[in-house]
Amino acid sequence: MAKQYKTLGDEIWKNRVEPMNAELFIFTYGSLVVQLVKDYEDYDQVNQQLDKMGYNIGVRLIEDFLARSGWGRCTDFRETMEVISKIGFKMFLNITPTVTSWASDNKSCSLVLDENPLNDFVELPLDAQQQLWYSNILCGVLRGALEMVQMQVEVKFVSCVLRGDDISEIRVQFVRHLQEEVPINDE
């Protein structure tokens, strides 16, 4: 099944995604992070802002993902993470993280990013290496997108090559299924 997801992700990337200049994207994101550091002067606040921005992006990005991929509902959290890894990340960043380190209850796993285009051309200052999660926007994107498909998750980076770690790893913990709610006074 994982091969089917990868094949679909590759097909969507080649035929349904309008390419953009990767370097422009990377440098724009870098400028955004630098501005947040200047504005907040506190790396914890910068991490929170990146997560919040990512969440807002994820809330909107899920519609694009569903429209372009034609994907329906996943059967469980495990399938959801495979689809995100092999189709979602491929569609939007042209990378395919490895889904690994599943908990015995299948409610948490890690996404290992062998490559992360957001990290290209980046070197963190020493004071930032232990506090700043430079690509934390990805955690927010995952959280926002999954919330829109009624999955509450906790998402956090546990390691990053920019901080001197061997790998970049995002840990995703399934919390609960959300109930679909009709907005108040909506008929």
Automatic annotation (TrEMBL):
Keywords: Endoplasmic reticulum, ER-Golgi transport, Golgi apparatus, Transport. GO terms for cellular component: endoplasmic reticulum; Golgi apparatus; TRAPP complex. Its main location: endoplasmic reticulum. SUPFAM superfamilies: Ligand-binding domain in the NO signalling and Golgi transport. It comes from the Eukaryota. Pfam families: TRAPP (PF04051). One of its GO terms (biological process) is macroautophagy. It is found in: Endoplasmic reticulum; Golgi apparatus, cis-Golgi network. PANTHER family: TRAFFICKING PROTEIN PARTICLE COMPLEX SUBUNIT 3. Belongs to the TRAPP small subunits family. BET3 subfamily. This is Trafficking protein particle complex subunit BET3. It comes from Dispira parvispora. The lineage of its organism: Eukaryota, Fungi, Fungi incertae sedis, Zoopagomycota, Kickxellomycotina.
